[in-house]
Structure formats: C-alpha cells, structure tokens
Specification:
It is a single chain. This protein is 9% helix and 35% strand. The protein has 503 residues and is mainly beta. A hairpin with a 5-residue loop joins strand 21 and strand 22.
Length: 503
C-alpha cells in the first residue's frame, strides 16, 4: 500500500452524502478484523463486544456495470452511533485511518469526511469502469501501516446501520442501494468487571433503607447480575430483587448507627464493592438528595433514531432504578436549524416524566439544552418542574429566556459543552446554578468567571451523557472525551458520565 497522494496533514473538510429518489442494485458485507480475539464477518450483520480494537472492512459489489466517473459512497444512518469521532485519511500510523481498494488490492481515490462526528468514511469517483460483481472494500482503522485501528463503540447499541449509495452522471443525489445496508450490534463484554452500590445519603431511624447494585463490564455497560452475590448492611439481612434496568434493588432495615454501608462480595470472582455511607438522622429536616439535570436521549435531530437505546422512558427509568437518583431532569437538544424537531420528542419526555414521578421517592423534571453562538449565550440547560409546560422554542434568545423564567419554578444553567456559555448575560432570579463539572471535564475557570463578576450561583455537576443513562458511574471512553485521536496522532480517551448534582 502507498500513502494517499497529497495528504499528510489534517484536513477537516466535511463530505456529505445525501440519498434521493431511485435505487441501485448492489450487495454489501461487513467484517471486523480484531487486533486480538476472534474476527467477525464478512456478513450483512456483525455482533461485537464493546471496546474491541481492530479494523472494519465494508465491501460493496454492484449488481450492474458502473461507468468511469460514477460515484459510490458509504455513510452511517444513525446519527447517535459513531464508528469514530473523526475518520482520517492522512496519517497511516494513527487511529481510524481509512483506505479504499478494489478487489485486486489497488488503491482507489476517495474523499473522507474528516470533520468532527464524521458520517461518511468514503465517497469514491471511479477512475475506471466497475463491472457487476466486482468489489470495492473500505477499511476503517486500517492497521497494515502501523496504525492502532479503530475501537468499537464502548456503549452497547442495538442495530446500527451503514448504507451504500451510487450517483450516476446527471444525478443530483445518490441512489440508495437497498440490499447493500449492513448492520452493527454492540454488546457488553461477557464478565462483570466491577460493581457499583448506591445507597441514600441518609435515612430515619426505623425506616427501611433502599439501595441498588449495578453490575458493569469493563466499558461501563450493564450486565445481568451473576449468582453468588453476598449482600449485607451493618450485619443485617438485605432483600434483593432485579429491576427492568438491569440493576438489583436492595431493601433492608435501617442501620442502627450512622456511617453504615451496603456491602457486596461476588463469591465467584471475589470482587467487592461498598456504597456511600448512610447517615441515620432521626427527626432532621436537612437531607442530601442526588440527581441530574443534564442527560440526553432521543432528540429527532442529533440523536435521531427512537429506539431502545434512546427512548425517554428508558432514561427516566434508568435514573430511578439503575442509579437510584432522587430526582432527574431529562430532555435533549433544541436546534435553530431544526426548529420542528422538538415537537417530535417533547411529549415523549413529558409522558415518561409523569409515569416515573413518585412523590417522596423520585421527582422528575423536564429539560432541554438550548444552544446559541458563544457571543449570544452559548449552551445552557433549561429545567422545568411543571410537567405541563409547552415545548420550548429553539429561536428564543437568552434575554427572552430570562424573562420567561424569572420568578417561576424553572431554571437556567450555563455549562461548558459544544459551545461554552458566555459568563456575560446573567439573571439571578432565573440562573441559580452553574455546571462546573461534566463528562467533558472539570471547569473551575468557568465558575470563577461568574463568581468574579459578583454572581451568586450554586455549583453543580452533570454528565452531559448521550446514552440515556442519567447518573451512570464515570467510565473511561474513547467516545465523547476521546474525540481528538485523529488530531493528536495518538489514541485518545476521556471521561464519560459521572458528575451529579447534590441538593
């Protein structure tokens, strides 16, 4: 193989592939050459364990002759599923390096979407005719010149798709090849790597104590709890039952003294875990409650497929059962370029919030992430306690939001995300909190920028998670935090999940 001519430095051009009317006959397969462990495919569908390292091989064969000059393209369909944060075609020895070749192994010229959140691994303009039945192979994470390959998404995902299309002379858009769509399923690793045990921060003497156990693989995916778990609380018996979210619900008599823990031991693997300490506070009105106002699921635009991975009902239930939050404010992004998208998901979140709102146990809120340019306010989370509020308007400006929220049971929370919220505009009766810690990192400078101006704000955390798992424990991930691999010329990772809000 030879390096792609004329490209040795990063070039972050966006390559688009849009499907139009019409179709083209073709077939496709997908395979995964693992760096370690068993390969998968070639087949129309592959199932892989999360976090595996290797090379994707996506093969296309036309069902009719294609002339020189015709274009063939490959793109992912689900916006929330990523093969890589950035594909790249300029550093053969770096992560997510893409190549294209014919069935004789000869390199083919192509364009690669090298921008953030890449959707199109390759669009090829045929330099010579391609006969029916001949094949072209796109390699994503090509390791043949020293690169590390590509990492399978760390979060489990059901039924993601890659689709091929063909554009002939005179066509404006690509004709989809309906029989050339391949499927990827990502499943958890097979064994539990760690347990997380959640307990309330306090309980009253004589009241039952409820907690939860979350068994996770090495990537932070939930696994069924194995047999042989020993669970105790201050030497007392613990009642255990499974939940629909994959966790175990724990219940026992309140501990006799403050500082007790729920404790777990896996008798087979000898893994151990213990909860946060539980304070026994008879008659106290001052308690500590844990929750999250910044987690995302389906939004009809960025997270654009409504399925078991993204559904709002799954998200609210996860916070209630799996991570034992006391309150949760779910919602998703509202975009100026997709003003109608919010009407596709707002009522779904409202329904889910109403279903899981439980007085004295789990309080639900509605929310969204409002976005504007940095000079106009940046990214802010909007949170409502009233579950009957109408859908927010993506065209709102920051001043209008302050007026709508001032003095009402609603909040504006600036945060550092895609576009940092500018610490310029501020309305103390609406903007009471500032998100200092998220899955993106720790941003004390951001909080200091507000505090140094005399703003009085509570400092909170939020995951900014995009997998509909509010309150999920912090895990290392090549996705989200690891988005700079093809800029830094190294395998990159970052934190995902973790931070919470305490009241």
């Amino acid at each position: 193989m030879t390096a792609k001519p004329g490209r040795s430095e990063p070039s972050f051009e966006r390559v688009h592939l849009q499907f139009g009317e019409g179709s083209f006959p073709a077939t496709a397969t997908i395979a995964f050459e693992a760096a370690r462990g068993a390969d998968a495919g070639p087949a129309p569908s592959v199932t892989l364990e999360a976090g595996r390292l290797g090379t994707w091989l996506v093969r296309f064969s036309p069902g009719a002759d294609l002339p020189a000059g015709a274009q063939i393209g490959l793109r992912r369909l689900e916006n929330d599923f990523k093969l890589a944060w950035r594909f790249q075609d300029y550093w053969p020895d770096a992560q997510d390096y893409v190549t294209v070749e014919d069935e004789a192994g000869e390199p083919m010229p192509f364009q690669c979407d090298c921008a953030l959140k890449s959707r199109v691994p390759a669009v090829m303009t045929l330099p010579r005719p391609l006969a029916a039945g001949q094949a072209i192979t796109v390699r994503i994470g090509d390791r043949r010149r020293g690169g590390p390959g590509s990492v399978v998404r760390s979060a489990a995902y059901e039924a993601a798709h890659l689709a091929w299309g063909v554009r002939l002379e005179g066509d404006e858009l690509f004709r989809r090849a309906p029989d050339a769509v391949v499927e990827i399923n990502v499943i958890p690793r097979a064994c539990v790597a760690r347990y997380h045990v959640f307990a309330p921060s306090q309980t009253a003497a004589g009241e039952p104590l409820t907690g939860a156990v979350l068994p996770l693989d090495i990537n932070g995916n939930v696994l069924p709890a194995p047999e042989g778990l020993e669970l105790t609380c201050d030497g007392r018996e613990v009642e255990v039952r499974p939940t629909d979210s994959g966790s175990l619900r724990l219940r026992c008599a309140a501990p006799a003294e403050s500082g007790a823990h729920l404790e777990l031991r896996d008798l087979e693997s000898d893994l151990k875990a213990r909860s946060n300490p539980v304070r026994v506070a008879p008659g106290s009105d001052l308690n500590v409650y844990w929750g999250e106002f910044h987690a995302h699921g389906y939004d009809a635009a960025e997270i654009n497929v409504l399925n078991s991975n993204t559904h709002p009902e799954k998200a609210y239930r996860y916070g209630k059962e799996a991570t034992r939050l006391d309150f949760c404010g779910m919602g998703s992004h509202i975009f100026r370029h997709s003003p109608d998208a919010v009407h596709k998901w707002w009522d779904l979140y409202r329904e889910a919030a109403r279903e899981h709102d439980e007085e004295g146990r789990y309080v639900t809120f509605l929310g969204c992430e409002w976005r504007d340019s940095e000079p106009e306010g940046g990214d802010r989370n909007l949170v409502w306690r009233d579950l009957d509020v109408p859908a927010p308007d993506p065209t709102w400006k920051i001043g209008e939001i302050y007026e709508r929220f001032r003095g009402r049971p609603a909040m504006v929370i600036p945060h550092v995300g895609g576009t940092p919220a500018t610490p310029g505009p501020h309305q103390p009766q609406a903007e009471r909190l500032c998100e200092m810690v998220s899955g993106h990192g720790q941003f004390e400078w951001f909080a200091q920028a507000y505090l140094s101006k005399g703003c009085r704000l509570g400092l909170v955390g939020g995951s900014d998670g995009h997998t509909a798992r509010p309150g999920h424990p912090r895990v290392v991930s090549t996705f989200g935090g690891g988005r700079w691999a093809s800029v830094l010329r190294m395998r990159d990772s970052g934190w995902s999940g973790g931070p919470l809000l305490a009241v």
